[in-house]
Amino acid sequence: MNTQKASRSWLDFVYLLGMAAVAFVLLSPVIWLVSASFQGPGEIFKVPFRWIPQHISLENYKNAWEVGQIGRALWNSVSVSVLMLVFHLFLNAFSGYVIVKYSFKFKSLMIVFVLATLMLPQEITFLPVYNLVKSFGLVDSHLGLAIPFFYSGFGVFLMMQFARAIPDEILESARIDGCSEYRIFFRIALPLLKSAIAALGIMAFSFIWNEYAWANIVVLSDQMRTLPISLTFLAKSSDNSVKISALIPASVIAMTPVMLLFFIFQRQFVESVASSGVKG
């Protein structure tokens, strides 16, 4: 018995050691980036690289803030992301719930259209959407950057799958008690969809935070640059030189909000993945 326990403990230790090695390999670029952001240009390229900085300096962050205008870009990215998330989560959750829980004409055709949008590269829609945004005078604005992503076929489809798991008996009981359809959605359906909404929120935020193609089309002025555009500006300047001392800390600033969001809502994200196989 003791031999079996010792053997199992040894296997657990080997498994833990292997997972730690894999985690280090996957995280090593991030660790290098964070460490290099506090080192001077001369220290960054030393061989071997110092994983623990000998002299911690914030001069690189100061350069990124001033040269790359990261402060303004950070504000633009936060504004666009919050604006997009508010509409994206509400519209997709409401649409997915309505499609699943209500019967109406052309319902099957609507589901086909939703699924069809998943097969189209988003870049195909940029030209007509740009003309629409331009006609409303929203070019080079926060709303113009966010409006194409208010709605997505993937978001609707994801919410449809989770809405199927909401028991119809609960909704019928609420109707019998006199609840309106809107109150049922906000007071009953939304709380039951919170894990799915958290998962969709993390994915949507990661997408809009790192979105470059559409922003590069709509943004015309330096004041409206988002973080991806500012990183590109630092990576390639007018004299074709890379501002490495500003690019590295700017990259750390850019990745921090996404990591924080995941760590805060990781429980809901895991719950949504674990319950994705639940049948309605």
UniProtKB/TrEMBL annotation:
Family, per entry: Belongs to the binding-protein-dependent transport system permease family.
Organism this protein belongs to: Cohnella phaseoli
Domain ABC transmembrane type-1: 74-265
GO BP annotations listed: transmembrane transport
Keywords: Cell membrane, Membrane, Sugar transport, Transmembrane, Transmembrane helix, Transport
Alphabetized InterPro entries for the sequence: MetI-like, MetI-like_sf
Membrane-related topology note: Multi-pass membrane protein
Classification of source organism: Bacteria, Bacillati, Bacillota, Bacilli, Bacillales
Gene3D superfamilies: MetI-like
Chief location of this protein within or outside the cell: membrane
Regions that span the bilayer: 12-34, 78-100, 109-130, 142-163, 184-209, 244-265
Location of the protein in the cell: Cell membrane
Entry protein name: Multiple sugar transport system permease protein
GO cellular component, one term: plasma membrane
Transmembrane helix keyword on record: yes
